[in-house]
Specification:
By secondary structure, the protein is α+β, with helices and mostly antiparallel strands. Helices cover 66% and strands 6% of the residues. Strands 3-2-1-4 form a 4-stranded mixed sheet. It is elongated. It contains 12 helices and 4 strands.
Length: 331
């Protein structure tokens, strides 16, 4: 079970905000083994598909470059022109394979974690230059896992190579007795099939590495209960801040309400609890409307403001007088 720097166990699943921030930093699951396998499979398939045409174009290029006329040798510009033509022909011959490998190199990372460009990952981190941190990484569990993966890859490639060499031994020996053109094409085919079989063997490593990388990325994002609570407070607002905001809003509302009290025509109140300031404006409405109201201290403050303005009449609440006639009075 993972622990944070504070010693608390990281038992909570990462929140959407934590995942989003990690993705913005480029901290997502990536598998080098999966990328390597995809590139090898595509490269092997490219050799099998385009190897014959590549071999023919390269052999034709060699014939043209080794059969130079005397006039071309005596011409000063002929060598540079021939170099440009040969380079263009060589590039055209390998373009299909290069395009396929480029696409494979892009598909590999995207297949796990999706497309991501994190500018923060390009920033230099001087903490990585710390020798002590480097030694700590060398003896970490991740280093042991990488060592085991490398050893497993070596054993798989060795086993596949031994099987392929034993299977194609007769074909390899027959290449020495074939014509040059046929031998070149045959060699590319053998290399393509051997690479394909080795890539298929490495699929075992990739099938194990992908879940491991996903698990490690998830484990790295785990949160403690306190981190979840703090993040919830940050997103929803801390209680003390929200309380202070509500208090300021109430104070602003009360100030606006008190500013409207002098414009009221009547204040209906009882001696102890409530005050309601009512305004009559026949131009706006046929019925009166409330401009201020409150209880206890606010009620007393409304009455005080109304008394300071002689134009506002203060009446005791009729309902209160019905129940407590001894307290009823008209001010």
């Amino acid at each position: 079970m993972a622990e944070s720097e504070s010693g608390q166990d990281k038992t909570e699943d990462p929140t959407d905000k934590r995942k989003r921030e990690a993705r913005e930093k480029g901290e997502i699951a990536r598998s080098k083994e999966l990328n390597t396998v995809i590139v090898m499979i595509v490269g092997a398939a490219g050799l099998l598909a385009f190897g014959g045409s590549m071999a023919e174009m390269m052999m034709q290029l060699m014939r043209e470059n080794f059969t130079i006329s005397r006039e071309a040798l005596m011409e000063e510009r002929s060598m540079s022109l021939m170099l440009m033509v040969s380079g263009k022909a060589a590039l055209m011959s390998v373009t299909p394979l290069l395009v396929a490998l480029t696409i494979a190199a892009l598909i590999g990372p995207i297949s796990l974690g999706g497309w991501l460009f994190a500018a923060g990952s390009l920033a230099p981190k001087f903490s990585r230059m710390n020798p002590l941190a480097g030694l700590k990484r060398m003896v970490s569990p991740n280093s042991l896992i990488e060592l085991l993966k490398s050893f497993a890859k070596f054993l798989i490639v060795l086993a596949v190579a031994v099987v392929v060499l034993a299977k194609d031994k007769n074909d390899l020996l027959a290449i020495a007795h074939e014509p040059l053109e046929m031998a070149v094409v045959h060699s590319l085919q053998l290399v393509g099939w051997s690479t394909l079989w080795m890539a298929c063997g490495l699929l075992i490593i990739a099938a194990i590495d992908v879940p491991v990388q996903l698990w490690q990325a998830h484990k790295k994002l785990l949160m403690t209960k306190q981190e979840v609570r703090d993040e919830h407070k940050d997103s929803e607002g801390r209680p003390e801040v929200k309380g202070r905001i509500r208090q300021l809003q109430r104070e602003m509302s009360q100030r606006r309400m008190m500013q409207e009290v002098p414009s009221a025509d009547v204040v209906v109140t009882n001696p102890t609890h409530y005050s309601v300031a009512i305004k009559y404006d026949t131009e706006k409405s046929n019925a009166p409307f409330v401009v201020a109201k409150g209880a206890d201290l606010i009620a007393m403050h409304i009455r005080k403001i109304a008394k300071e303005k002689d134009a506002v009449e203060i009446f005791m609440c009729i309902l209160h007088c019905a129940y407590m006639p001894s307290e009823c009075m008209l001010t």
